[in-house]
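dumping this here before i forget
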Amino acid sequence: MNAITPIEAAEQPAADIVALFEADPKIVLTDKSKADAFFAAVKTEVEAHVPDLTTAKGREAIGSIAYKVTRSKTAIDKARLDLTSDLRKEVDRINKVGKEEEARYAALAAAARQPLTDWEAAEKARKARIQAAFDFLQSAPLAQPGDTSERLAARLAQVQAATFGDDFEAEHKEAAERLQRIAIDALTTAIERVKQAEKDAADLAAFRAAQAAQAAQAAAAAPTVQAEAAAPAAATENHVAPPAPPPPTASPSETAIILGRAKTGLMDVCGLDEDTAKRVVLAIARGQVANLTITRENAHVG
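structure:
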């Protein structure tokens, strides 16, 4: 059957095009001339209707003609869905296959790139290890709360044990070895300094303990000495003199001054080196040298 031309559609009776549409609404979607002819027929009918709002029948006629237009639109919509059903199914099929292919190619691309991905991860880990080594070497010599000679020695051992293998490129290895030497020197010096400070603290504690023991011994002997000294006077004067107060004990700061003066005196007068003079002073202070004591008076250096 030959398609109707636009001129023929315009000349075709409205009843014929309406009958064709009612038989198969798809004609307005597949033939533009028939779509125009049917729309013209519907429009003509709408325009030919004279609205009458004064009666219920007139108002009902208005609603009826609007309903006929809407019904035509609904029929066209249904025909459109029927015509495109297969197309939409094909689109869905194509989309499904497309997503499957996308996933397959994405997986293949990831597999192709895997060696580079693995290398990048290893390189990131290598750089992290290098940075951690630099951070440790830079922080190791720094003083930390609670540092003792033992803790410093343990840190020194860690620094000395550090190695810079395949992770380190030439320039990084050279820089790390330079930091390692600096850290070893700094920690070695710090250990010597802290050991000396620990020894000085132990010596000072021993001196204070000896001083306290001397003071206690002197206080215990004081009543006997005082009684012996007061006996002749008691016989002549018939009274007992009050006991003399025990000699005052030096404070820690005074003790340090007294020891320092005694050490300086031994160095100046006897020509002793500082370490020997210090050992002699501590031996006297601890009571290890018979008949010798250090007091405020005899520790004074002119």
